[in-house]
Amino acid sequence: MPALTLTSLEEVPFIRHGDDLADIILASLIGMQLELLDGDILVLTQKIVSKAEGRLIEIASVTPSKAALRHAGICGKDPRLVELILRESKSVLRVRPGLLIVEHRLGFVCANAGIDHSNVQAEDLNPSEWVLLLPEHPDDSAERLRVALRKRTKRTLGIMIIDSHGRAWRNGTEGVAIGLAGMPALVDLRGQHDLFGQELLTTTVGVADELAAAASLLMGQADEGTPVIHVRGFPYPLREGSLSEIIRPEREDLFR
Amino acid sequence: MPALTLTSLEEVPFIRHGDDLADIILASLIGMQLELLDGDILVLTQKIVSKAEGRLIEIASVTPSKAALRHAGICGKDPRLVELILRESKSVLRVRPGLLIVEHRLGFVCANAGIDHSNVQAEDLNPSEWVLLLPEHPDDSAERLRVALRKRTKRTLGIMIIDSHGRAWRNGTEGVAIGLAGMPALVDLRGQHDLFGQELLTTTVGVADELAAAASLLMGQADEGTPVIHVRGFPYPLREGSLSEIIRPEREDLFR
Q1: Residues spanned by the domain of B107
Q2: CA dist., res. A16 & res. A53, Å (int)
Q3: What is the rounded average pLDDT for all residues in chain B?
Q4: Rounded to a whole number, what is the distance in Å from the CA of B249 to chain A's nearest CA?
Q5: In whole angstroms, what is the distance from residue B39 CA to residue A62 CA?
Q6: What are A164-222's pLDDT values in tens digits?
Q7: Are A119 and A51 in contact (CB under 8 A)?
Q8: Assign residue B127 a region: left if phi > 0, alpha if psi is -120 to 50, beta otherwise?
């Protein structure tokens, strides 16, 4: 009976700069009497990875550029925040009142370059003065955690860091991978014939994003509730993997 | 320990026109000794719903229009197939060699209006001559199944019909809801402040699509392998729901 089981890790504390996420995850799993097995995957919200990596920025430290002032005039956001968004972005796709959609420097398209203010309260900081950037290199963050957990558990694990993105065409945000290690981002499933049998096509399935969506469902939007999800039963073999598999190059993208 | 468990239903037979999906699902669940509980959700691939509803079309019966011939000249697909795609669509968004992306009459954006040739082999039909359209009204299909299952089990269930869609910006297909009943498509999560605390915003999460992605992961692309997934632990209350919640109206969509 093939089954996929996702479990929220319990008693994960507020994460602060410098915290060892491997330690924290293993402590939670021990408390839950949940032993890691080969093939398991751990899914982390970007917020705790960013906080562990010290990606909090004090907004007062930022001086907006002319471009930031111009975009801020359209979208109505704080020009200093817009400046941070631009620094984290390759290009601006859309600016409208209340909305700033960019191509993030990591390659994906999202609102506000993924910059977030929530969770800052837990730091005893004034939430109006601090924002949280995405991890600098989420694939590397995932890989470091994978190596640390392998060292201590001897298990072959997948690690994924996720965020919630809006989408073209459909309402509602959805969990997506922004970094991963030790697991495929895409799986090519052969065996699909062309509608008239003349051509063998490949169907490429976004398995990491599908799992990110599943994990996001359990995380909800609770700021500090369930920042790590344990996954058992991922139906594809683990392998090396990277966010770069998922990013569609601009030249191949018909919807920018 | 909040957990979400997805289980593939076993021994679901090839589905044919007129089959009673409620019968077939209950027989499978009994064989697996898996009893439905209030709050459970059943996720079905569109293929078996379409087949039960007799949505197979013989391609030889189709005469292409001038518009179909014109688009077929660009995308290189069979003009009769293009004719069917156009009949199932409100508008054409992009046509390129090998690619035809439309707004489906049901409102979502997808390739080829979701028309599929696979599974046709199981019907002892020539796969080069038959194609499968999406269910005519997937919300209604889901509601009929929900009512039938409630009658027989007395359980309050959610039902979702899913397909795999390509996406803007990101490689890889992902499972998405194309019809649902008895469950939310979106959930509004309050409590997010604006980055400067001046405004209370709502974050709308695409929970049905997140669950569709999770179920799709277990279904794989196997034509007849695992067309129904049982879900336990969906973390939101069930309610009436509809695909229409998810469809972003063209006037609000910045990426068409």
Answers
A1: 56-133
A2: 8
A3: 90
A4: 8
A5: 48
A6: 999 999 999 999 999 999 999 999 876 554 444 434 456 899 999 999 999 999 997 55
A7: yes
A8: alpha
| pTM attached to this predicted model | 0.94
In this complex, which of A170, A217, A246 lies closest to B108 when CB atoms are compared?
A: A170
d(CA A175, CA B205): 9
**Distance (Å, rounded) from C-alpha A248 to C-alpha B6?**
30
Query: Can you tell me the distance from the alpha carbon of B53 to that of A81, in angstroms, rounded to the nearest whole number?
Result: 53
Between positions 216 and 245 of B, the ones with CB within 8 A of A are 216-218, 220-221, 226, 234-235, 245
Closest CB from B218, B221, B245 relative to A203:
B221
**Tally of domains in chain B:** 2
Tell me the per-residue pLDDT of A124-144, one tens digit each, with 9 for 90 and over: 666 668 899 999 999 999 999
> Does A214 lie in the same domain as A92?
no
Residue with token string 């080829």:
B112
* Residue type, position A60, single letter: A
User: Do the Cβ atoms of B134 and B50 come closer than 8 Å?
Assistant: yes
Backbone angles phi, psi at B242, to 5 degrees: -155, 150
Query: Are the beta carbons of B209 and B217 closer than 8 angstroms?
Result: no
A vs B: CB pairs below 8 A: 242
DSSP A54-100: T-EEEGGG----HHHHHHHHHH-S-HHHHHHHHHTEEEEEEEETTEE
Are the C-beta atoms of residues A176 and A206 closer than 8 Å to each other? no
Query: Could you report the per-residue pLDDT of A21-75, keeping only the tens digit for each?
Result: 999 999 999 999 999 999 999 999 999 999 999 999 999 999 999 999 999 999 9
Q: Which of B113, B133, B153 is the last residue of a domain?
A: B133
Instruction: Note the ipTM here.
Output: 0.94
Q: Within a domain: residue A142? A: yes
At A203 the pLDDT is: 81
